[in-house]
Fold this protein.
Amino acid sequence: MTHTTQTPSPIDTPGHILANVPGILGFYPANSVLFITVENTDKGTCLGPLIRVNAEETEELLDHIATPLQTPNCEAIFAFVIGSYCHHHTEHLIDVLMGLTTEHETIDITAAWITPEISVGAPYSMLFGPFHNQTGEGLMRDWARGTIPNITDSETMRRCIAEGNLPDLDRDEHFSIFFEKNPFLSADEIKSMDREAYEIASDMRMQSPDGPSIGCGVTPYEFIETVPVILDKTRKSVDIRTDSSVLTVIGSWLATTWSRDLIIRELLEEPEVAADALLAAAQTFTGTIRANALCLFAGVSMAGENSKYANPALNTALEEFPEHNLTKLLHESYKAGLIDETVANLKSGSITAQKQVLDDHEDADYWEDDDIEEGIDVWEEEYPDTESFFEHEFADITADAGEEEKKSA
């Protein structure tokens, strides 16, 4: 299942909606069912959350589909079937869409259309809805049937072109970067790097806040200061995956919950470069380091100019590490459309982690108390029955400094 909260241009026809889909999802969907809300906003009628599911999984994912579609300003819910299906299969999909009922509620689909593919000139026709039997000329006929207009003229695609960030050809290509393996380092090299990364993070936790260092370990303050240095190396590198020493340091950031939380703030300062570093780590390491790399990749992507890979990164992390707490929290907030609040929570939580560790450091003005409060109230309002991000993710900061944390967050 794919979910996005982007809102493209005002609605003209179903064809214009379909033309915007690749730019919203970041890829061209096939053999899918799309659900999209129509929102009444200050700017007029616009599209709201878009959810894509594999056509054959529509019924079993109803509970996951329902909640994101229940938005405060929802005026209607549209469904689009993408693919070529026999008459019997199409009739079955119509029955499913017209009777979408979860354990708790019924999802009222206002209208549904079908198209064999999303491409220029591809025909679409209404499966059911208020204009199903519309004939003649004019706009109402275009809502019953028509063809998809030039996709490159859609608002979302124009934005993609301006950013040099074209949609992928299909979902597999869209997710492929998260399954690509580092081609430059051997399994033995990566195993050694993994061990060293955990040692760096564990030794760092044993140090006093601002030194002197114990043994070969770096202090927490020195640990945080590695972030801009490594990001600068990443920016200047042709492919950072070739540099085992840099990757080891990145791995140490992500080796434990404690080390991860200390460096999030610095990563958010340079989200595009941080995304490159985190993706390299995800393609190199396994286990906790990979889980945290995927999760934070999504977080910095939301903070940067290129957010199209945030959702596939979270989905990949959830599939591989279903109990990873921070991933679950980010995914829930992403589904709710709380992008800015998510980034604010990541920043404020990291600031809090740093304050608890470095409270006695001479640079006492490094933190602003207002930052700590930003976004937390919104999170608690949206999720009153769960712990806030702040409470949930950083409760273990004051745990015994000798506690072993080589486990998934």
Q: What stands out?
A: Residues 210-215, 360-364, 369-409 have pLDDT under 50 and may be disordered. The CA atoms of residues 352 and 372 lie 7 Å apart. The chain has 18 helices and seven strands. The first strand starts at residue 2 and ends at 4.
